[in-house]
Amino acid sequence: MSTESTVEKLVSLCKRRGLVFQSSEIYGGIGGFWDYGPLGVELKNNIKQAWWRAVVQERDDMVGQDAAIVMNPTVWKASGHLDTFADPMVDCKECKKRFRADDLVGAVPAGTHGHDAAAKVTSCPECGGELTEPRMFNLMFRTYVGPVEDDASTAYLRPETAQGIFVNFANVLTTTRKKLPLGIAQIGKAFRNEITPGNFIFRDREFEQMEIEYFVKPGTDEQWHQHWVEERYNWYLGLGMRKENVRVRRLEPEEQAHYAKDTYEIEYLFPMGWSELEGIANRTDFDLRRHAEFSGRELEYFDEESGEHIVPYVIEPSSGVDRLFMAFLVDAYAEEEVRGEKRVIMRLHKDLAPIKVAVLPLSRHEKLVPPAREVWGLVRKHWMSQYDDAQSIGRRYRRQDEVGTPLCVTIDFDTLEDKAVTIRERDSMEQVRVPIAGLVDALREKLNTDD
Ligand code: ATP
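Above: inputs. Below: predicted complex with adenosine-5'-triphosphate.
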């Protein structure tokens, strides 16, 4: 399958099946913004829940938080975003297209902004026209707080969730009474006025991040860095991503962000090539020191062992929900031939599948409706489910296969006699007959869930 056709197929499947829509589509859309439909919001929530479960719920050294999107603008002065969160931008003097200069030379040090790779760009890749000199363009969206629009009321939509964690470090430390190492996790929207959004939901102007700031004693940072690289890599594999499509890459010294001592990326083999899913940086004590300096507050930890106040080092695993959404879909998408017919199947891990169980009466026959409704009543209390009685049973199985539903439950005329139903599995297409009385247990076992 060619690169283009894979992404095109996904975009069209996502639209047709209610996963992702172009934002404000009826008005022609708006570049870099997307809406998640009924199935998309389920998949997105499942990704976030799987992450939260792994990094907060199942660990004793992690807590969560949820900071505001708009923060005191001094936060962005301290973090360096006001001065350096910029990309070099060039315009074509002929066709007026705009590009990120570092994209044109194919040298985009991921995780860094404001690097100067622009000098090598000379002509427009679209029309060959002359390009303007590169200008640095700050990616933060600006807004005003309150009724007066002046410099004093200028604020920013956060370009990352991380800073909301650093500024709450002392609050979380005192209120939880935790010792180091201590991690704080957060999921939330971030905004970047990207010069060239694209590749479907890979690069957006509004997106969601899942970030961890893991505070450790200096000297133990390298060991914890390795720990998180392994943890995060295994998380992707645990959710069914194919090993040959995921890799860990250590950034070269010249690719590192100014605050980073060392950075790894977890990359996925997208149709357009290996690209970043998640960055895992050792940010040292850079952020806490900057915020202490700008706020005048002490952002330190009292280490009982040494009897000293220390400024913790920070390991930051930072990923984007929308990018992961796309990667999980690309990875799960397959076309197969079944009895001479093409079947599109989304082999999503059961924890990620938007719908876990579809309830399908064999037909709309009036005798089948009451038991089918009864079965749906049992199932929906436990799992996200769907009732579908439109068209032939074969077509309904295909519809569920292409959105990744792991299990279908079919109610047929035998059900009226034997009070049993058929469970059909997505991947193997195997069918087993189980009594309605034991259905929830049978589904629970197959889905391997605690619900
Ligand atoms: P890139 O080099 O692709 O611009 P970045 O290195 O600037 O990304 P980070 O600042 O490290 O990205 O952000 C952490 C994570 O947030 C990324 O790994 C990615 O998953 C996600 N992310 C960043 N920018 C975007 C975006 N514009 N659209 C969607 N997800 C994004």
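Residues 108, 110-111, 160, 192, 194, 203-204, 207, 209, 276-279, 318-320, 322-323 surround adenosine-5'-triphosphate (CB under 6 Å).
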